[in-house]
Amino acid sequence: MKRIKYSITCILTAMLFYGCDQGIDGITEVDPGPDMSAPQIEISSPTDGSSLKVNEQFTSVDINFEASDDIELGTVRVVMDGTEVANYNSFKDYRRFIVDDLVYDGIGDGAHELAVTATDLDGKSTTTTSSFTKEPAYIPKYAGEILYMSFDGDYTDLISFQKAGVEGDPGFNDESLNGPSAYAGALNSYLTLTTEELTNPEFSAIFWLNLNDAANREGLKRAGLLVMSPPMTEGGTRNDLTKGFRLFREEVGGNQVVKLNVGSGETGHWFDGGQAAALPNGEWANVAFTLSADTATVYINGQVVSTGLYDGVDWTDCNILSIMSGDPNFTQWNHWSDQSLLDDLRIFNRVLSQEEVQQIIGDDSGEFVSSYPPTFPGEMFYMPFDGDYNELFRDEEATVVGTPGFAGEAVAGSDAYAGVADSYLTFPADIKGPIATDEFSATFWYNVNADPDRGGILVMAPEDTEREGFPEVQNLRTSGFRFFREGDATRQVFKLNVGNGTADSWFDGGDAAAINPATAGWVHLAFTISGTDAAVYLDGEVAAQGSLAGGVDWTGVDFLSIGSGAPRFTQWNHLSDPSFIDELRLYNKALSQEEVRDIMDHDM
Hints:
The chain contains 3 helices and 42 strands. The protein has about 600 residues and is mainly beta. Strands 9, 11, 12, 14, 20, 21, 22 and 24 form an 8-stranded antiparallel sheet that branches. Strands 10, 13, 15, 16, 17, 18, 19 and 23 form an 8-stranded antiparallel sheet that branches. Strands 25, 29, 30, 32, 38, 39, 40 and 42 form an 8-stranded antiparallel sheet that branches. It is globular. Residues about 1-30 have low confidence and may be disordered.
């Protein structure tokens, strides 16, 4: 009997010991040894550099972190903006402590700092901080703006405060256009929003895209950008193009081209700008489109790339806005998720004008955007001299010195610049966008008058304040450029001088750059400056070319002189030029010879 009682007692003791151990975290037995390391802390919320954007004056923030130690934690202290929020000194797992349910209220506008300090039993301490901001409630910046997503750490529309649905695993990238982050696309990932406030008779959208043209899940280089489309037909296999819109991109001729399809109820209408709607790869570009009752227009970087008439948009059954994918309602042609970066998405309940599109681009980028469309890649300045001295990209008149006039003839257009003694034009180097760019080219038509036998044609040079005879005598050539002619009544040679910051380089083609004033008539002139070399062209042929270490330096250069070396290049009497000039264009790139010839042929 005693043996039976003893056995039962042992069994009950074992059961009680086992039962009491349930519900307690398993702890691995370790040899504590010496305490070698200070605690470690990882803060997962709020993330460092993040912004809180809500419509209230004060908000709350979730505080989530993990503290750990190689031997044993002693205390963990949580401080927000210098005020203690929590203090812990009892831990179920004495080596690892996780907080995921702490909330701090009363966060106002401005910068804030969370500090978590963990101390181990040996007295070693670690403090980790996370700095974040609460931004004032967003107030729409533009008339009719009904949606704005900044992608600064979240996927919230800052006007309606609707949080986007997240499909897959998109993320954020700190290489944003504005703010701390931008949307970063991923395979099989995109966002969705409901469309109740978006389906208006007029509609505009504008956003920034930094293209990643990696292949999608079907191995194709194509993707949906913004899509408000009805559900697919025929069992989810066929696109319905009769309602809503589909803005997407796909490869055409080696480029990614933006295309728009809009449904008016009976049919879909296409707005395809071809290569004019091509996106640059790996740099921020602005994309916008507008829908009125009868016209749709697509813009790239503020320029119209496609426009046309249609019968107005029909929103029937368009209850999902897909962002950065055609999924789920536009996938028949494999326009799946876009792996590019997206920033500053805005939607409007009205049609934006081109000027308004360009204003938003300028506000976002801080750069001037011209309403005048470039005729050639890189073109940034154009003066046709058709009865005035207006520069068309900036819509600004040149400053007139003396009494220049007009030729009464032209290569293109209705007139050309005609120089006279002591007369020329100047134009600022930085007004509504710089013309002093890292790479630089100029093209124009020229009809020489060789009396006097030398003259400045185009000059961008610094002041030469140290030269004897200043300001009448100037010739500082260590920055900017000087393009001029010199010779006699039967031979005029075109020459270029460029300063790289420490020295100047000469590009003098001699006979190859010479014309006979008596017989030449109109000739086409061009020069190009890259980071490594410069070249002069005469009627599309290379007249002078050579290396230019470091490229052009623009120190002290604040305006362009047209038709004279004055006032900055006068020591050698390259003063005003009585010749004719037509179709003056400047470029923010070094043109190739083929491009120079194309420009010349365009005017002939």
